[in-house]
Amino acid sequence: MTTAAGSRDDTFPKLLARNARIRPHRIAFRHKDLGIWQSWTWAEVYETVQAYAGGLRALGLERGGRIAVVGHNRPYLYWTMIAAQWIGAIPIPVYADSVAEEMAFVLAHAEVTHAAVQDQEQVDKLLSVSDQMPQLGRILYDEDRGLRDYDHSRLHSIRSVIEEGRTRLAEASEKERSEQELRAGQGSELAIILYTSGTTGRPKGVMLTFDSVIAAAEIGCDFDKLDETDEIIAYLPIAWVGDHIFSYAQAILSGLCVNCPENPETIAEDRREVGATYVFAPPRVFESMLTLTMVRIEDASALKRRMFKFFIDHASKVGEKILNREAGVGLWDRFLWHVGNVLVYAPLRNRFGMTRVKVGYTAGEAIGPEIFRFYRSIGVNLKQLYGQTEASVYITMQPDGEIRADTVGRPAPRVEIRIDDNGEVLYRSPGVFVGYYKDDAKTAETKSPDGFVRSGDAGFFDETGHLKIIDRAKDVGKMQDGSLFPPKYIENKLKFYPNIKEAVCFGDGRDFVGCFINIDLVAVSNWAERNGVTYASYQELAGHPLVYDMIQGHVDEVNRSLASEPRMGGAQIRRFLILHKELDADDGELTRTQKVRRSFIAERYDPLIQALYNGTMEADISTEVTFEDGRKGVISARVKVRDMTLYPAEWAASLPEAAE
Amino acid sequence: MRAPDNPVAAKQDVLLAVDNVSLGFGGVKALSDVSFDIRKGEIRAIIGPNGAGKTSMLNCINGFYYPTEGQITFKGVKRPKMRPYLAARGGIARTFQNVALFKSMSTLDNIMAGRSLKMHANFFWQLFRHGPAMKEEAAHRRVVEDIIDFLEIQHIRKTPVGRLPYGLQKRVELGRALAMEPELLLLDEPMAGMNLEEKEDMSRFIFEVNQQFGTTIALIEHDMGVVMDLSDRVVVLEYGRKIADGTPDEVKRDQRVIDAYLGVAH
Fold first, then answer.
1. What is the assigned CATH class of domain B1-91+218-266?
2. Measured between CB atoms, does A421 come within 8 Å of chain B?
3. Which of B145, B155, B212 sits opposite A263 (nearest CB)?
4. A266 in B contact zone (CB under 8 Å)
5. C-alpha–C-alpha distance, residues A359 and A536, integer Å
6. Structurally, what CATH architecture does the domain formed by A476-643 represent?
7. CATH number of the domain at A14-185+225-277, please?
8. Where are the domains of chain A?
9. Is A465 left (phi over 0), alpha (psi -120 to 50) or beta?
10. What start and end residues bound the annotated signal peptide (chain B) (predicted)?
11. Nearest C-alpha of chain A: how many angstroms from B232?
């Protein structure tokens, strides 16, 4: 283990000092500025941070005091965090794109006295709400552009603060004091407070100690064998726990190099230039890279297009197996993959800036299985993980060779997981948080006395011991017989079929699960053409018996897969119907981001729900619709209901406690 | 947006004076008897309806046209008949109403082109990109990178400008003009065809160029909001004549300006 605890380096400033001692000339940070990668070695960073810490103290930042850090990923902002920790103050990183009011709330809640920000934009934001945070005294900035004519009685450039600290350090007594401060830091002390954006209500301040952050970083570094030769590109918000662990904690712990991009728009190119070896991105980044590639390939010459298609098809057959070192790939297929590697895959990886990637992670939300497989098939070791701020990220990870698109992996090392009766995932690890800042009630609600933390997500372990997350726990309902009803999980399974555009399941507090289905007009009309089904309107197609037969086949497959999963067997769909009209945001049935509004739909289509649950085979419904030009009309239809046969659940109702 | 008494402009240092300038093309009089001055450090707007002679005026200032009557004095020296590149060497840079960039060259190369008048290494070294030429190029690149940073166009540094949207092309053109480190910057409709956000960005850049580098700016613009916000003084032309000259507030109240813009009942 690259453990720090053993060698007494139990805080980040101490680890920084260690890095300056054992690898003084290795590059620690890079930042692309004026078109050139500027770099700093660990020795230089150590010297700068020590001076910075003294400068901060001179500005009145005290032990236990708090300093906000606002901006994009810049070396000087990361150094602000270490410098603050050096003198025992607590850094509070804040999302750079949050609006002034949100920022004011966090800064006032955390009682920050100092703030280090990136540029004029952030300075302006803070000044505009300064009446809401009376404690905030000093504002430090990184870029001076546009700030020349500001009142500098409270404003300081970070560089001038460092300069001030440097002058002071020239004296022996100051040097002694600084070393003492460094030694005084303890692993059990608060290292950082990370405010979670919180989809509902006010943000909560998650308090993490050095011990837990370092423990989490050790888990990550050991799991993927990170060392000082690794390079990462820091581009995710510094206030997000992921960035704090990957670009701060793991970097300082293992001595790897952190690269800060020039600006948010140049990340793709910067990543290519740097050749990062460890990549983290939310699914949408991988999605958009793939889409962009596909669009550009369409513009390529016919020969290149055909070559691309041939090799990508080949990769989708054998690429993953080769990456996983599985047996059963023929010599010829292997040879072909390597030819493809030279002609297509390697240039593609280069384009994505992933030529040197050892391991890439995606997390945050579910990634489309085909996207996930695409990257793996061309040789990028992409994995999923499941984590939370309260856990210092790591809860589950995917070990090499056990990587699947539909699970988030096994419990990470040193993490214990328990599944609650309502399906909620509980975890305990050395990385878990101390509590929410100034919110003991919330802390008690989330963290049990034995140290287990409620994740708020519902999930289960599958037969291979991998965790599957199904939904937010509060959205998971219970049926009358007590079995779990995870609506989104079932709906996503249905929507996996191209013919099904939208699905709405009902079952909370009921005897069985019933379901509305929307067909996908493009896919189904295509199918209709191939199968000789004639129709005149959407309504007629949706009600066609052959269409019902086809959809019934899909629902049957979903039921079979539910039956094969632990605790999901009770949520099989017993009756379904195909809606006569498409659910539409104009009618208020979907949100503008295309999410179904379940309760609204339940009200509007009440006669159909009656039909699902009272056993009739047909129901009449008329609904008002809004046309695109704003006119309103009424659609009436007679909708048929289909019964399904259910499969016996393969898993007993109660599951043995999952692996730890 | 800006303080009415710009400390620099208040010094009343005249950078460029236009005295009784007339310009005719055969029988057509583009300008007749126009006089005004541009003071050091100010933003001076030239406005007027279509065909009022604004662009002709700009062309006279940067030496593309030579006035048939009257004279132009730049930095205290009466201007002889000259080619535009001499005006450029003298410290006048401009952008054009229709973007005039090298479409197939990158943003970086286009802005570097703005430095060409400042390059001194001889042809031989430049040919081989070696020795003094290389050292010089590095120094110029540094200036250009500062401009790229200033205009926030790092992400298109290596993109051929022909592929860029119009708003960004305008920004690159401004960058090329800035690369000359001009004393007087002439902007011909810098915001034409832009959406609101692009206009706001461009206004900010023009304002910051003026504030940060102290560059004197003369601009032609149709968007009255922008003109009134940005400029220290405004000169109004109509049918080749000057009809008003003063601060934005004065000009806004001038009856002849109102008539020229809103039309007058006959």
1. alpha beta
2. no
3. B155
4. yes
5. 52
6. 2-Layer Sandwich (3.30)
7. 3.40.50.12780
8. 14-185+225-277, 280-355+358-418, 476-643
9. left
10. none
11. 19
